[in-house]
Write a structure and sequence with these properties.
The chain is mainly α. The chain has a single domain, classed as Tetracycline Repressor, domain 2. It is built from 15 helices and no strands. It starts with 37 loop residues before the first helix and ends with a helix.
Length: 341
């Protein structure tokens, strides 16, 4: 044993020994109150954690962060219709309608596509096919989204209420389109184009030309970027008999059509600017959006999908924000200078 340090004595236990499986009681663990059931308390905590986890999974399932695609255009529609900031009540109901529409549309999409998603390696880990969310939970969320959308549409006025069944038909029907038409991308664009159009109607009570040009731009822009996103599933869609522009036309022609749609979106938004008598700041926003769409198309110019996340989400999440900010900033500057003059 020479040359070795003496072994340190074993530390004295600071907690009393307890039978396996029993709750430990120590200085930092208060003793259970008389008559309480520690095991039942632990089960309650586990149950609460399960509910929270399920809510998180439901939130991730509907990709609520993708609301940044359409919400800025809804805000812009309201701002332009009011020629300023809409009343708070209307703004809050517009936001509620957006949340309800987004929740119901995405939940319905995940429900009807669960079997398809399970077969696709890219989507097999989604919450429903992976079993992390129950169909009952998803159906409850779908019902809540539809109710919220309907209540908000009714609160915003008679025309929004009258058009709400058509809007629901479009946003829910999109999820079925890939089964029979390659133009599902356009239906998705039509779904998102309802955001600025609905907000305009909510504020003004009727439909006007600028609202149609703004919404038309959203339709073309959305269809264009959805075609790029569908390039990832081109081979899978063909193998499963599903329809998409890339599966039907191939990569090269799908890219060409996506570019044409983005040019059409820029033309629509330019016409919107003209009809709104926009000045320098709003047009600078338009130029920035044009640069982002050019960058998006450049990233996938040869069908290279290695940077599809940057092209699809990062850049597209900024398009509406930048365009809205240009118009909002111009309105603020004009009213600031007019007030000080």
């Amino acid at each position: 044993m020479s040359g070795m340090e003496p072994e340190a004595p074993l530390p004295t236990p600071t907690r009393p020994l307890v039978p396996p499986g029993a709750p430990a009681i120590g200085p930092t663990d208060p003793a259970p109150e008389p008559g309480s059931d520690p095991v039942q308390g632990q089960a309650g905590n586990i149950e609460k954690a399960g509910v929270i986890d399920n809510l998180i999974e439901l939130s991730e399932m509907i990709k609520f962060e993708h609301t940044v695609f359409a919400l800025p255009f809804a805000l812009l529609g309201g701002l332009a219709a009011a020629q300023g900031i809409p009343p708070l009540r209307i703004s809050l109901w517009i936001l509620a309608a957006m949340v309800g529409a987004r929740t119901s549309a995405m939940t319905f999409n995940r429900l009807v596509d669960a079997d398809i998603d399970a077969e696709n390696p890219r989507t097999a880990t989604r919450a429903l096919p992976a079993g992390r969310v129950s169909r009952a939970g998803a159906l409850a969320l779908l019902g809540a989204g539809i109710v919220l959308f309907g209540v908000a549409a009714g609160a915003l006025g008679p025309l929004t209420w009258a058009l709400s069944p058509l809007a629901l038909l479009i946003i829910l029907g999109y999820s079925l389109c890939k089964r029979f038409t390659s133009w599902a991308h356009v239906v998705l664009g039509l779904s998102l184009s309802g955001a600025p159009l609905g907000a305009w109607i909510a504020v003004s009570g009727h439909i006007e030309a600028p609202a149609l040009w703004l919404s038309g731009g959203v339709l073309a822009w959305t269809a264009g970027f959805d075609i790029l996103y569908a390039l990832q599933d081109q081979a899978f869609d063909r193998g499963q008999g599903l329809h998409s522009i890339p599966a039907r036309l191939g990569t090269r022609r799908a890219l060409l059509l996506s570019r044409l749609l983005h040019l059409a979106a820029l033309a629509c938004w330019a016409q919107f600017n003209l009809l709104m008598d926009s000045h320098v700041v709003a047009w600078l926003g338009w130029v920035a959006v044009a640069a982002m769409l050019f960058r998006e198309q450049w990233l996938v110019r040869r069908g290279d999908l290695s940077r599809i996340d940057q092209a699809f989400f990062t850049l597209n999440s900024l398009v509406g924000l930048v365009f809205f900010t240009g118009h909002a900033l111009e309105w603020w500057l004009s009213h600031t200078f007019l007030a000080s003059a």
